[in-house]
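Async update (no meeting this week)

Hi team, since we skipped the sync, here's where things stand on the single-chain job. The sequence we agreed to prioritize is pasted below, unchanged from the tracker. I ran it this morning and attached the output directly underneath so nobody has to dig for it. Comments welcome in thread, and please keep replies under the output.
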Amino acid sequence: MAESSKPILYSYFRSSCSWRVRIALVLKGIDYVTVPINLVKDGGQQFSEEFQTLNPMMQVPALKIDGLTIGQSLAIIEYLEETRPTPRLLPQDPKKRASVRMISDLIASGIQPLQNLSVLKQVGQENQLAWAQNVISSGFNALEKILQSTAGKYCVGDEVSMADLCLVPQVANAERFKVELTSYPTISRINKMLLALEAFQVTHPCRQPDTPPELRA
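Output:
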C-alpha cells in the first residue's frame, strides 16, 4: 500500500498531547490522516517495535510530514508554525511570544507529564486520583495567577495561540480527575471560550476515529 501523501498523525483519542497537535493541524487547514495508537490495548501499542522505530520515546503524538517524523507536541506545533505560518499560533510581539511559550511549557512540562499514564502506573491504583488532583491543582494555582496578567479573550491577548492549544486538553484532564475548577475562574472562562471554536470541537477526544462508542458524542 502506497504511503499517504497527507501528513500522518499517530494519535490516541484521549492523549492531551495529541489533542494539542490535532487543534494546530485543523486551525492551519492541514488535511491529515490519523493512525490510532492505543496506549492501553495489548499492553500499550506505543511499545511495539514498529512504533518504537518511529518514535524511540514510545509516546504519542508523532507526526510524519514533509519527509520528516517529529515527536513531542510543542516541537510539532513550532514546526507547523515555521513552515505554515497562517494563521499564526505565536504572536509577533516578542513579549507576548515569551508569555505563550511560558504558559505552554508550564502545562506541557510542569503539569501534564506528572499525571500521565506512565506516571500514574508507578504511584499505584489506590493513589492515582489523589496524585493527579494534587499535581493538576498545584499547576493550576500558578497558571491562574499568570493568566490574570496575560489573558485577554484567550490565554495571551485576543488571538488563539499555542498556549490555548495546551490549556483546553489540560482542563479536560482536570475534569477527568475530578479537580474542583471553581478556584480557577480565569482558566475556566478561557476554556469555555475556546471550546466554542470549531477547531477545538472537531478535535475533541469524543470525536476521534479511535474514540470508543460509549465515549462518543
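Quick observations from my side:
The mean pLDDT is 93.
Residues 37 and 43 are 11 Å apart (CA to CA).
Reply here if anything looks off.
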